[in-house]
Amino acid sequence: EDQVTQSPEALRLQEGESSSLNCSYTVSGLRGLFWYRQDPGKGPEFLFTLYSAGEEKEKERLKATLTKKESFLHITAPKPEDSATYLCAVQAGGTSGSRLTFGEGTQLTVNP
Amino acid sequence: GAVVSQHPSRVICKSGTSVKIECRSLDFQATTMFWYRQFPKQSLMLMATSNEGSKATYEQGVEKDKFLINHASLTLSTLTVTSAHPEDSSFYICSAPRDRGLSEQYFGPGTRLTVT
Fold first, then answer.
1. A46: burial class by Cβ within 10 Å (0-12, 13-18, 19+)?
2. Chain B residues lying within 8 Å of A42, measured CB to CB
3. DSSP state, B59?
4. C-alpha separations of B113 from A19, B23, B69 in Å
5. CA B94 to CA A69: how far, in whole Å?
6. Does the bond joining A8 to the residue before it have cis omega, within 30 degrees of 0?
7. CB contact under 8 A, B44 and A102
8. How confident is the model at residue A98 (pLDDT cuts 50, 70, 90)?
9. 3-state secondary structure string across A3-61
10. What integer pLDDT is reported at residue A95 of this predicted model?
């Protein structure tokens, strides 16, 4: 069974204080790992897809990296508008099709 | 990115009634769509996979007779919550992959269902 574990559950940062969110996964044949951002009362917003170990992607203050067991979402000099819940999801191979398995998310709060 | 819409965004219904939620892919065709449920402070739980032209595939523990899914066209899937009860109150979200196979899924804005 595919499993995704995110840590920490919640993270409070001061504006400008860089940090990282962790996503550990167990999956039979990883096809892709996805990061999403979700604001309260809204659907998840796509951020990144990572396909293979060693891959990195960046977007503004966010950088996602992938190893064979985990992924990190690095946030550099965060701003209050980065406050949201960040979700990690994996897509497995085989008969799973396009379905995603989500972690519980990390709720990020950035204080001004 | 691709756009997925949901309607309605909020709905309040009385216990025992049925509610239909629509999910549309606005700028691409989706042979597959997914329906999730999200309770407060929890992550997304996959309920079912909606397949255009065929029956939906339900996750273990999800009652297919209670949550009716119809994928009527390549841009529309509907979720009908039949005989709704207060415990069905939740945030329902749909998603669709832009392409078949390996691709990111785009999510709708969600529908807040409250059953009184």
1. middle
2. 109-110
3. P
4. 36, 15, 16
5. 28
6. yes
7. yes
8. confident
9. EEEEECCEEEEECCCCEEEEEEEECCCEEEEEEEEECCCCCCEEEEEECCCCCEEEECC
10. 62
- pLDDT for B103 beyond 80: no
Separation in Å, CA A107 to CA A3, A56, B70:
19, 22, 34
Which tens digits make up the pLDDT trace of B9-66? 999 999 999 999 999 999 888 889 999 999 988 999 999 999 888 899 999 999 999 9
Strand B76-81 relative to strand B67-73: parallel, antiparallel, unpaired?
A: antiparallel
A57/chain B closest Cα distance in angstroms: 14
Q: Which residues pair with A110 in a beta bridge?
A: A13
The percentage of residues in chain A with a pLDDT greater than 90, rounded to a whole number, is 85
Amino acid at A70: E
Helix (H, G, I), strand (E, B) or coil at B34: strand
Instruction: Give the Cβ contact number of residue B88 at 10 Å.
Output: 19
| B108, containing H or E segment | none
Residue from B38, B27, B31, B32 nearest B4 by CA: B27
Of A32, A91, A103, the CB nearest to B43: A103
